[in-house]
Write a structure and sequence with these properties.
The protein is α/β, with parallel strands linked by helices and 554 residues long. The chain has two domains: 19-345, Metallo-dependent phosphatases (Purple Acid Phosphatase, chain A, domain 2); 353-550, 5'-nucleotidase,  domain 2, CATH 3.90.780. Strands 1, 4, 5, 6, 8, 16, 17 and 18 form an eight-stranded mixed beta sheet that branches. Strands 9-10-12-13-15-14 form a six-stranded mixed beta sheet, with helices on one face. Helix 2 runs antiparallel to helix 9, helix 4 runs antiparallel to helix 9 (334-347) and helix 10 (370-382) packs across helix 15. The chain is globular and about 75 Å long.
C-alpha cells in the first residue's frame, strides 16, 4: 500500500524555462525597391527588396518565432512605390513578414483619395496592411484618438507561448516634415504621456516594445559600427530618461536614419539606418518574471551588402545566385523580384535618357551644393518672372552620378510630389525666411537668383512661436541676404518660387510664408528637373557658385 501511495503522489511540474524571443528590426525603408551604392566601395551594393526579403527569410529559417518590427517611413522613395500611392509598400512588407510598424511622417505624404481628402492614401493602405500599424500619440483636434480602420495605438503579438505588447509612436515634428495641410487637423502629442496612457491596455504581457518614428541620435554616427554606450537625445532620450528603467524592453526606432544597436539600462534600442540596408537583431530572454536583459542577446546588425545584381536600364537579367550575407547563405526572393517587375509595369519606365552629367553632383545640408544649385536653377527656369528660387536641402534625397542622366536619377533626387508655387513676399519676409533656413534646425535653403551668409557659431535667437523657449529652428545666425547682387530691402516686394511643402509651413518656415500671396501655381518640382535637364546643350557640370556663405557676420 505504501508503494502504491508513493507511486500516485503528485509530482510538481517543472518551472517554465526562460525562452529567447527573436526580434528583427527595420526602419525608414522609403520604398527602396532597388540596391544602392556602398560608400567607398565600387564592388559592393546594399539592400534591394529581393535581398532584404531573402535575408529576412534566412533569419526566419533559423528562428521560426521571429517577430519583425518597423520604425516607420515605409512610403516615399522610388517611383513605382510613389506611383502606387503606397500600395506597393504594403505588398513589400507582406513579403517581409512585418508584424507591427510605426507611422512615420512620410506616411502622410501621398495625401487624399476618395476615402479621405487629406489622408486617403494612408488610410487605404492601412485597411489593406497585413501588419499592425500603430499610433498611440496621434489624436483628432478634440483629443480623441485618431484610429481609422487598420490603425491602433497598441497591439499584442503572440509567439512561442509569449505575448509581446507593442506601442506605436510618431514624432511631434510630423507637421513640419510632411505636407502640413495633410495633418492640419491632427495633433501629435507627447510620446512619454502616450506610453504611460497605453500601458494599462498591455497589462499581463511578457514584454513591452515600442515602435517609434522619433527624433534622437548619438554622436558620432558611424556608418559601420554601433555607438558604444550611446544614450540618444531628442524624443528617444526623453522616453529613456523619464520612464522608469525597464518600462520598455526594446525600442525599434526610425526617423534619424542613424545606427543604434545597444542597451540603455534595461532597454534595447535598435535603429538600422534606412532603405533596407540593415536589419537590427535582438533576442529577448523571457521567463516567468518577464525579460531578463542580462541574459538577452543583442546581435550585431545584419548589413545587407552584396555584389551588384540588378540590370538597371539594360536588357541584362537579374543575377539571382546566392551570396553570403551576415554569415548566412542568402538567395534573393523571387517573390520580391516579381513584385518589383509588376510595380514597374504599372508605373512606367524611368530609364529614358535626358542628357549627361560630366561629374557627380553631390548634396550638402550645411552649404550650397551642386544638386541644390541645379534644382534651384530648374525652378527659376520654370518661373523666370521670379526674383528668387528656394528649396530645402532635406527634400533633395540623392546625389547624381556622372554619365548618362536618366529620369530615374532625378526621380531619386526629388521623390516627393512637391509642386511649385510663386509667392509675393516683402523683403522683411525674405529676411525671416532666410533666417529660418540658416538656423540649423533643418538643412540650409538652396537657392538661385541670390545668395546669403550665416554664422554657424551663433547661438542666439528669439521665440517665434510663442511657446516661451527658443528652439533650434528659431536661432538667428543670418548675416546678409542679396537678390540679383543687391542687399534685400525690407519694404520692397519680391517674387519667390518655392514648393508647396515649404509654403505650407514645412521645415518650420511658417513664420515667413504664412499668409503670403500666391501669384502662380506651377508643375511638380520633379517635372521641372526633367525639363531643365533635357534643355541643356552640353553635359551638366557641378556649379561652383558660392551662394551660401559661411563665416562670421563681423
Amino acid at each position: 500500500m505504501l508503494t502504491l501511495l508513493l507511486a500516485c503522489k503528485h509530482t510538481p511540474a517543472p518551472a517554465p524555462q526562460p525562452v529567447l524571443l527573436p526580434i528583427a528590426a527595420v526602419n525608414d525603408w522609403h520604398g527602396a525597391l532597388y540596391e544602392q551604392p556602398v560608400r567607398d566601395s565600387a564592388a559592393q551594393v546594399a539592400g534591394g527588396l529581393p535581398w532584404l526579403v531573402g535575408t529576412m527569410d534566412a533569419i526566419r529559417a533559423q528562428h521560426s518565432d521571429l517577430v519583425v518590427l518597423d520604425g516607420g517611413d515605409i512610403f516615399q522613395g522610388t517611383w513605382p512605390i510613389n506611383a502606387s500611392k503606397g500600395a506597393g509598400a504594403i505588398a513589400a512588407y507582406a513579403l517581409l513578414g512585418v508584424d507591427a510598424a510605426a507611422i512615420g511622417n512620410h506616411e502622410f505624404d501621398y495625401g487624399g483619395t476618395d476615402t479621405h481628402p487629406l489622408r486617403g492614401a494612408l488610410m487605404d493602405a492601412a485597411s489593406d496592411a497585413p501588419f499592425a500599424w500603430l499610433a498611440a500619440n496621434i489624436t483628432e483636434a478634440d483629443g480623441t484618438p485618431w484610429a481609422p480602420p487598420g490603425i491602433t495605438a497598441t497591439t499584442i503579438i503572440e509567439r512561442g507561448g509569449f505575448r509581446l505588447g507593442v506601442i506605436g509612436l510618431s514624432t511631434t515634428e510630423t507637421p513640419q516634415t510632411t505636407l502640413p495641410r495633410n495633418v492640419a487637423d491632427l495633433r501629435f502629442t507627447d510620446p512619454v504621456a502616450a506610453v504611460q496612457a497605453a500601458l494599462p491596455a498591455l497589462a499581463g504581457v511578457d514584454a513591452i516594445a515600442v515602435v517609434g518614428h522619433l527624433t534622437g541620435s548619438c554622436s558620432p554616427t558611424d556608418f559601420s559600427t554601433p555607438d558604444e554606450g550611446c544614450r540618444p537625445d531628442g524624443e528617444i532620450g526623453r522616453l529613456l530618461d523619464t520612464l522608469p528603467p525597464g518600462t520598455i524592453d526594446v525600442m525599434v526606432l526610425g526617423h534619424a536614419h542613424t545606427l543604434l544597436s545597444n542597451r540603455v539600462d534595461d532597454t534595447f534600442i535598435l535603429e538600422s539606418r534606412s532603405k533596407g540596408r540593415m536589419i537590427g537583431r535582438v533576442d529577448l530572454m523571457i521567463g516567468p518574471d518577464g525579460v531578463d536583459a542580462d541574459a538577452s542577446i543583442l546581435h550585431p546588425p545584419v548589413t545587407i551588402t552584396h555584389t551588384p545584381t540588378e540590370p538597371g536600364c539594360t536588357d541584362a537579367a537579374f543575377v539571382s545566385a546566392p551570396q553570403r550575407i551576415g554569415g548566412m547563405t542568402v538567395t534573393p526572393s523571387t517573390r520580391a523580384l516579381a513584385l518589383v517587375e509588376h510595380l514597374e509595369e504599372q508605373a512606367g519606365s524611368l530609364c529614358d535618357a535626358l542628357g549627361c552629367v560630366a561629374e557627380p553632383l553631390t548634396r550638402s545640408r550645411t552649404q550650397g551644393s551642386a544638386v541644390g544649385h541645379f534644382t534651384a536653377d530648374a525652378m527659376l527656369a520654370v518661373a523666370p518672372q521670379a526674383d528668387l528660387a528656394i528649396t530645402n536641402s532635406g527634400g533633395l534625397r540623392s546625389d547624381v552620378p556622372a554619365g548618362t542622366l536618366r529620369r530615374e536619377h532625378l526621380q531619386a533626387v526629388m521623390p516627393f510630389d512637391n509642386r511649385l508655387v510663386v509667392l509675393e513676399l516683402t523683403g522683411a519676409q525674405v529676411m525671416t525666411l532666410m533666417r529660418l533656413g540658416s538656423s540649423g534646425g533643418h538643412g540650409v535653403l538652396q537657392l538661385a537668383g541670390g545668395r546669403y551668409g550665416y554664422d554657424p557659431e551663433r547661438t542666439g535667437g528669439s521665440d517665434l512661436d510663442g511657446d516661451g523657449a527658443v528652439a533650434e529652428w528659431e536661432r538667428d545666425r543670418l548675416c546678409f541676404v542679396e537678390i540679383a547682387g543687391q542687399p534685400v530691402r525690407t519694404e520692397q516686394t519680391y517674387a519667390v518660387v518655392t514648393t508647396d511643402f515649404l509654403y505650407d509651413g514645412g521645415d518650420h518656415l511658417g513664420p515667413a510664408l504664412s499668409g503670403a500671396t500666391i501669384l502662380e501655381r506651377g508643375p511638380l518640382l520633379r517635372e521641372a528637373l526633367f525639363d531643365h535637364a533635357a534643355a541643356q546643350d552640353a553635359c551638366i557640370e557641378a556649379d561652383d557658385d558660392v551662394r551660401v556663405v559661411l563665416g562670421s557676420c563681423d
